[in-house]
């Protein structure tokens, strides 16, 4: 028996007489499982990855998209410190009454890109898959998918620099978690109640563990107490030859890498260009500047996708650097184009 199974088993003693029959239990968890078998990052991030450059120097031959039915092995992704990244504030100019406020500094590009890492894991068990990590608006997220749905449930752990905020009706009860005062939030929905346990791990870090009532409240607390330090790479949808200097990653999903201050690269489902005026490698592209900022849309025809690189208003980047950045984006097999 492994450590996680032991922790969960300890909470089940004394409840056997109240347990439903095997058929009733199996029906219930299958209902829960159907609710959770939604489209997840795991379906694409678990796939193998092959690099396909969307724009490369003339001396490099552009490959064709691999057969999705037989993806090659996963490419290694570099990692960085496990701490939650946050954008570095730009230096402010001294106050002046005789001159207008200075504009933010122009974006500059530096070689390479390092993906963030998720800093915890649960003890390995045959009933759960290995975690899949992502990042959303500065929050690091790890998804643990249940494969033994009679004894386990899908579980998501979120690490943030701020206290979680919730909406909607729920009941809350205090819990002691990892030596800290936490809160167990129960949302009464069908087919399974949602259980969210959250607590301050330190003065600068909050953790939330979300699952359903396949687990008892005591088991949810046991799961949280079982979290151990780790360094799980957040697998990005692209590799990048260049990255914006001084801007920390705040979003990584199956379609997006986002940086602070509104600099993003997103793979969308293909949309025809209306006025192509640039090229990136062998692909047509459209560069647009307006009041919202600057966008570069690249028509990646052999992926039936549009790659968009954008910088929000208030950030300055030259056309040449925008094209140079796009030429260094390499789409991986695990990517999945987003809807517009």
TrEMBL record:
<keyword id="KW-0472">Membrane</keyword>
<feature type="transmembrane region" description="Helical">
    <location>
        <begin position="41"/>
        <end position="62"/>
    </location>
</feature>
<keyword id="KW-1133">Transmembrane helix</keyword>
<feature type="region of interest" description="Disordered">
    <location>
        <begin position="71"/>
        <end position="105"/>
    </location>
</feature>
<protein>
    <submittedName>
        <fullName>Uncharacterized protein</fullName>
    </submittedName>
</protein>
<keyword id="KW-0812">Transmembrane</keyword>
<feature type="compositionally biased region" description="Low complexity">
    <location>
        <begin position="76"/>
        <end position="105"/>
    </location>
</feature>
